[in-house]
Amino acid sequence: MSFEAWSLFALFWVVFVTTPGPNAVNCISNGMNLGLPRALLGVLAILTQATAFLLLSAAGVTALIAASPAAFFVAKLAGAGVLIWLGVRGWRNAAIPPRIENRPAHHVYLHALAIATINPKSLAGYLAAFSAFVQPDVPIWGQMVVIVPTALTLTVLSYTGFTLRGVMMGRAALGAVFNVWVRRVLATCFIIYGVLLGFSTTPVTRG
């Protein structure tokens, strides 16, 4: 994986994991109500989901590349549509205040895992990221050696940060993180990524 491709992927992933959504709300809520040690179980759950989805996405993209360049290109167009949809959805929902639900502390891990898994940004976003940044002419699992540590490190840093905000700022953290214009700027980034991905050319594999 080239340094340029890695840089673009890392930049995308920063936007992907710092965009406020259900995972961020849950992390802030855990930090507010449970204290840092127990709240970090929620981050562990997100990390579990991220690892599974990274591997599933890599396997899916590998199958598409093996099938045909045309199928991979269709996946890129679908990924572009997903990113644009996420951006438009984020822009429209930017002014909607987040909801926090109380729940038993012993459900922290499973609850966070469920939220991360059913999050509409999750699997579709992962596939979109892979179709955009994986180089089809380079062995996929060789790229995973770079992609997985990068993605997981950024994921841990982001959601640990959300959790710490909940611990330190309480409910005020929601106002800081879920600022309307911050959410709209991040939503615009998704739209830009989607448009750029849609206009990218069909990758050419080496014979």
Describe the structure in brief.
The protein is mainly alpha-helical and 207 residues long.
Structure description:
With 207 residues, the protein is mostly helical. The protein has one domain. Helix content is 79%, strand content 0%. It contains nine helices and no strands. Helix 2 (22-34) runs antiparallel to helix 3. The radius of gyration is 17 Å and the shape is globular.
What is the total tally of β strands?
0
How far apart the termini lie comes to 18 Å
Protein structure class: mainly alpha
Mean pLDDT: 77
Radius of gyration: 17 Å
Q: How would you spell out the order of helices and strands?
A: HHHHHHHHH
Give a short account of the largest sheet.
none
Q: Into which percent range does the helicity of residues fall?
A: over 70%
Number of helices: 9
Number of domains: 1
Q: Low-confidence stretches at least 5 residues in length (pLDDT < 50)?
A: 201-207
Beta fraction: under 5%
**Silhouette:** globular
Break the fold down into its secondary structure elements and pairings.
Elements: H1 3-18, H2 22-34, H3 36-67, H4 69-92, H5 108-118, H6 122-133, H7 140-169, H8 172-177, H9 180-199
Helix pairs in contact: 1-6, 1-7, 1-9, 2-3, 2-5, 2-7, 3-4, 3-5, 3-6, 3-7, 4-6, 4-9
What descriptive keywords fit this protein?
single chain; 207 residues; mainly alpha; 9 helices; 79% helix; globular; disordered C terminus
